[in-house]
Model the fold of this input.
Amino acid sequence: MDVQRRLNLRNSLLLVLVLLLLGCGLAQDDVLRMGLANAPVSLDPRFATDATSTRINRLLYGRLVEFDESSRPVPSLAGWRLLSPRHYRFTLEATPPTFANGAPLTSRDVKATFDYILIETNGSPHRNTLRMVERIETPDANTVDFILKRPDVLFPAYLAIGILPADLILKDHPFQDHPVGNGPFRLIDWPEQGRLRLERRGDGQAVEFLHVKDPTVRVLKLLRGEIDMLQNDIPPELIGYLEEQEPISIIRTRGSNFSYLGFNLGDPATADPLVRRAIAHAIDRSAIIRYALGGSAEPAQALLPPTHWAGAKDLEPYAFAPARARELLGQAGYGDSRPLRLVYKTSSDPFRIRLATIIQNQLQEAGIQVVLRSYDWGTFYGDIKAGRFQMYSLAWVGIKTPDIFRYVYHSGSVPPEGANRGRFASSAVDRLIEEAEAGVSIDLQAPVYHRLQVQLLEELPYVPLWYEDQVLALRQGVKDYLIAGDGNYDGLIRAWKEGK
Done:
């Protein structure tokens, strides 16, 4: 995008916002209001998988395990020790928090939560992650024993799921819209799909989540004081505009959400590794990050960031090299007389369409003809899960454990067994995944995961793009909110708003 075009767009946005701001009315109360691009789907942690629901559920429910800055599992509600390679004992903290209905949290609640997930007919999407659990025992009210079918040194990390009260589980309570958790917040009301209100249990601070689909309208509401904060999903030109507005602060931190291009390996064109390498060399990621993302991203070479304990810090990137891309296409049998034609799917979000259009143009410069097709989120994501694509772009959000490699890349993880949606099959990758999983400690697993990521960058089932920064826009008066690298909303546990 050239400078003049960006200035014209920015001026147009400024005019729209100035006109809409006429007659604005600041909300004169101490309720903290956060604008959301997507509404939560379920407030039941046994079923929630979308990012918004997962982040809000962290406020409502406590978990046995949390993660440190390098994504190593650390105690939260409980500590643990390994009694044998297949036997983990978790001991609840001395005074665990009570549930929002006043009931104390005990080992019975932990067992009931995970027993429910493990019952296949209940349909929890988290069951596959816990497939190695043979049984769960509760020697006393503060102790939970997990006996596994096989050793797994990553097992504690799989227990970062909110704990629900056993009595209500037995009564089939509708947790999806009437949560009863033991976290720092409780539900006040959820009067409509786009409006959710919580209360901080310690001091009564109210927090309201408002779904506003259009990013320009979200920014407008922030400027009018109808919303106090926005986290992510803000186009760069609007971030630039907000940086110049006196009542607004912009805060950035490096993120770990992994954006990528995915391919259908059952398609003759995208199954060819020469084609995928050509695409990798045809994309100028630095230019996209600088001009389209406003510098708010870091180039990625692998699904896990290098700061992760299983990440790889020295992967050799695919350089932007259009001539090399054309050379590889020629080796694959494509050229001016037989151009490569690809269909590229993305969501209908305006910013995602813009990014896809830039990639389309860069591939065109390398001799690849791309047809861009955008769909509403439900249709788009449904097509990706069903394997109805040739090429697409998406992001993996909130990844903490390296079992993601089996879930995404192992030949045995083709849906419905996992998320190997491109039908990637590599004996070398499978072997490295299995070798890493057999490691008896995290420290011994890490170098194997490093070799695995080198192999994946060579075979390219995905073309890595970038890790987008976490970006927070705050109005004056919001205090003590800390933004997390994975985009969670935990900053609301301590944040407050100067009131009335």
User: Anything to note?
Assistant: The first strand starts at residue 32 and ends at 36. The domain at 255-468 is CATH 3.10.105.10 (Dipeptide-binding Protein; domain 3). The CA atoms of residues 28 and 188 lie 20 Å apart. The first helix runs from residue 3 to 21.
